[in-house]
Write a structure and sequence with these properties.
α6 crosses α7. Strands 1-2-3-4-5-6-7-8 form an 8-stranded parallel sheet. It has a single domain, classed as Alpha-Beta Barrel (TIM Barrel), CATH 3.20.20. The radius of gyration is 20 Å and the shape is globular. The two termini are about 20 Å apart. Helix content is about 45%, strand content about 10%. It is α/β, with parallel strands linked by helices.
């Protein structure tokens, strides 16, 4: 699978011809494209552009998949301060940039997200929906990948969350143990997925629901993967048809192939349906071409890892003819 730009509607290049790129993916054995949908209130223009692209995908007998962020939405975050997670100290959690976490007990956001997904599926026929960031901020991209986990609250401790925790568990917040809080937060997020998955299945019975996972890669490698799976996957599996581990191109640069293979194998041993995806940043391709790399060569490299899908990620600049030529070589 290939993840294409479209995180915000104005990042689409409406006059861009996708034919050559789609032909490359199709000839490489890739069966579909993952299309990110913007979580804002300007969906109509995006729908028109994506419908055209989905038609091209269907002409090649490929599948179209939609991906939505669950507990990460910068548009909603900046418009609704009441949705911000809160540290245990009571301090508002503020983190500028793409990672904009949302309080998991914010019913206004939950309603907003459900409406966006429903509207998108009515207008955009999709074989499957992938839910990204279906986890607490602490379990996003920690352990040295992108951010320092110690800067993130393990969960939101706003008054709304505290009151709901006490009501659901009959445990006073001040007397709660970390294990109590972790168990409850897992149930909250699992509840989110159950609600979203149920809504999708009610409206579109043939549309499968998947959850995207990020591999934890560090000096502890395999041990970290096991710990992470225990925190997330077992809480989510009853509400997901499959899991999609996201393999970063930079992880291959860091020679973490063994840890990535371990993650995929661990999921398979637990008899969880796995559809791995591979993320390629087109921004790096000028440098890669100098060393003789090519996209087909990268796809060939990841095959031994059990990865049979790929992701083209180009969020930092408009997709245009020049950048695509850089990727295609």
């Amino acid at each position: 699978m290939v993840k294409i730009p479209g995180i915000e509607s104005n990042r689409w290049a409406p006059n861009f011809s996708w034919d050559r790129l789609l032909s490359l993916w199709h000839n490489s054995g890739i069966g579909g494209l993952i299309i990110p949908v913007s979580l804002n209130d300007q969906l109509s223009g995006l729908f028109d552009q994506v419908q055209t692209l989905i038609g091209k995908i269907r002409d090649r007998e490929m599948e179209s998949w939609l991906i939505f962020p669950v507990l990460n939405n910068s548009v909603f975050y900046f418009r609704h301060p009441e949705s911000h997670p809160v540290h245990r100290t009571g301090e508002d959690f503020s983190f500028p940039g793409w990672f904009a976490p949302i309080c998991p007990t914010d019913d206004q956001y939950r309603s907003f997200l459900g409406d966006v997904i429903a509207r998108s599926l009515v207008n955009l026929p999709a074989h499957a929906v992938i839910l990204d960031y279906a986890r607490t901020p602490y379990f996003w991209e920690e352990w040295g990948n992108v951010i320092d986990p110690h800067q993130w609250p393990p969960f939101c401790y706003c008054e709304r969350c505290r009151l709901k925790f006490e009501a659901d568990t009959n445990i006073n917040f001040g007397a709660a143990k970390p294990a109590d809080w972790r168990k409850w937060q897992g149930e909250i997020i699992s509840g989110w997925l159950a609600e979203i998955s149920g809504q999708i299945q009610k409206l579109f019975k043939k549309t499968q629901v998947g959850v995207q996972l990020l591999p934890l890669v560090s000096d502890d490698g395999n041990e970290m993967c096991s710990e992470w799976l225990g925190q997330d996957v077992h809480l989510l599996q009853k509400n997901a048809h499959f899991f999609s581990p996201l393999i970063y191109e930079k992880l291959l640069d860091w020679h973490h192939d063994d840890s990535i293979a371990y993650l995929v194998e661990l999921l398979k041993r637990q008899k969880l349906p796995v559809i791995p995806s591979f993320q390629v940043s087109s921004i790096k391709w000028d440098r890669r071409k100098e060393s003789g790399d090519s996209l087909p060569a990268l796809i060939e490299r990841i095959q031994p890892l059990g990865i049979h899908s790929a992701t083209l990620f180009h969020a930092r600049s408009l997709l245009n003819e020049k950048s695509i030529r850089s990727i295609l070589g």
